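Quick check before the chapter quiz. The format below is the same one you will see on the exam, so make sure you can read both the input and the output lines.
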Amino acid sequence: MTAYETLNHYIDGQWVQPTSGKSQEVMNPAKNTPLATLGYASRPDLDKAIKAAEKGFATWRKVSSFERSGILRKAANLVRERADDIARVLTMEQGKILAEAKMEVLSGADVIDWFAEEGRRAYGRIIPARADGVRNMIIQEPIGVTAGFAPWNFPVTQAVRKIAAALAAGCSIILKCPEETPGSPIGLVRCFHDAGVPAGVLNLVYGVPAEISEYLIPHPSIRKISFTGSVPVGKHLASMAGLHMKRATMELGGHAPVMIFDDVDTDAVATLTSGLKYRNAGQVCISPTRFFVHEKAYDKFVGKFIDLAKGIKVGDGLEADSKMGALANPRRVNAMQSIIADVQEKGGKVATGGSRIGNQGNFFEPTVVTDVPKNARILSEEPFGPVAVMIRFKDTDEMLKEANSLPFGLASYAFTHDAKTATKLADNIDAGMLTINHQGLALPEMPFGGIKDSGYGHEGGAEGLQVYMVQKIVSQLG
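Here is the expected output.
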């Protein structure tokens, strides 16, 4: 069995111990036992990281995009070679099953490959001039030193989206990864180090989140931030970035509607969407949550979905027969218990699940709730756990009104074989992303982002590179 990571920070090309004297234990959520102790960065540590990133940017921006691409491609190959080890560490600290952890790591390698190639194609353009001898040019340049803040639910892929895009654009980055899941990002960063990324271009720190963000974001050397996390924290960081005129990408929470019509194979849709719902125990920002099912398909779909939920084996993510792992921390168990109690108090029904499993580890049953009244918290608060809400509908317009009623606007899902209905949903759903009849979200080549309280800006796709670049306009005569 792979040992857990040595928890060092990475500053100026060196693996170092932080100097604050503060620390915390990193826990195994399947056993509630400590894995290691993580030290916190001090203000002097952050100053060293900033100076290193300034130096790294001055070096890296002068490296050709072709050469940067080669280094990133090497990093991607190293991630693939080390996927088993990184995935095992990820499962040990986050709780998801090993198959999901390995899929996350391998998809991270694909993200690096995508940006390695996209960075070679960050073209400028020539604008026709009004006078002879004038050249009007748009030149793409890296924005500068950046700061990234990654979450605990996908500690590899959310970190790698920030690293790969910044480095492909020619930027340097200081990355603050989650203190609850520090080992897998360390394994990821080691791949970039071993691939030959110059010292200072990539820096990794851990510590008190508020202290780090409140120091890095206003710092004059930081030109852009990227944050993935909760809506309240995202709003606070966005306001801070705005106060200092910093470009920001905010990928925040969601409460994804799933719109299921009566012209589909309900068993097949239930199988697909239950897999999406209970992936990572529902701790996914794009997790399907509010299932709007046409009344003609409702009983068959919900019956199949409940049967599938009941059949999921919940256990330690390192055990081969586990199909859903532990929640990442005790807070999520408490949140699930609270939200289910509210459903029942308001008159809703728990069709299956609804309870914690055992007393060791953060395990919770795959849950389905039905007949939920509109004043229940789960219909307005992101549950971020293994709970699916079933809602019967008859009229499409009324259903869309309900689906769009929340301040969230990240992901949405639809299942219908009627082209007119699909077009209507695409035109009227109030979300940054819609996938119809399959799961087509979060691919490296696709932009990923939301609207309303779910944030702004994109990661992934060509848009994910552009946010790390500025457009310089040059108009030259002679």
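If your answer matched, good. The CA atoms of residues 446 and 461 lie 5 Å apart.
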